[in-house]
């Protein structure tokens, strides 16, 4: 069975559930699947992002045109 058919089957099943306890369990499962991408970053990635934000706040930036000149060969 393909994923779209499975999703539709689950949606149809979910719409018929009357048991509040089961609905709460399903909701808990859904909520547990939501992870903030920030918490998945390594400390080095977090440090680099924070350093970039600090640089931007201090005005240490270059224009988009200049960045394309510098990094154009990788884009």
Give a description of the structure.
This protein is mostly helical and 75 residues long. It has two domains: 1-34; 35-75, no CATH class. The chain has helices spanning 3-16, 20-33, 43-57, 64-71. The relative contact order is 0.05. The mean pLDDT is 91.
Highlighted features:
75 residues; mainly alpha; 2 domains; 4 helices; elongated
Shape descriptor = elongated
Q: Helical percent range?
A: 55-70%
Largest sheet: none
Number of domains: 2
How would you classify the helix and strand content by structural class? mainly alpha
Tell me the strand percentage band: under 5%
Helical region count?
A: 4
Number of E-state strands? 0
The SSE string, one letter per element, is HHHH
Structural Rg:
23 Å
In terms of per-residue confidence, which ranges show pLDDT below 50 for 5 or more consecutive residues?
none
C-alpha end-to-end distance: 40 Å
The overall pLDDT, averaged over residues, is 91
How would you concisely characterize the structure shown here?
Helix content is 68%, strand content 0%. It is built from four helices and no strands. The mean pLDDT is 91.
Task: Outline the secondary-structure elements.
Blueprint: H1 3-16, H2 20-33, H3 43-57, H4 64-71
């Amino acid at each position: 069975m393909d994923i779209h058919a499975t999703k539709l089957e689950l949606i149809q099943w979910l719409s018929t559930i009357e048991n509040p306890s089961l609905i709460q369990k399903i909701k808990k499962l859904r909520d547990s699947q939501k992870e903030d991408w920030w918490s998945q970053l390594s400390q080095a990635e977090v440090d680099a992002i924070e350093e970039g934000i600090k640089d931007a706040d201090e005005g240490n930036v270059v224009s988009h045109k200049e960045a394309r000149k510098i990094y154009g060969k990788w884009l």
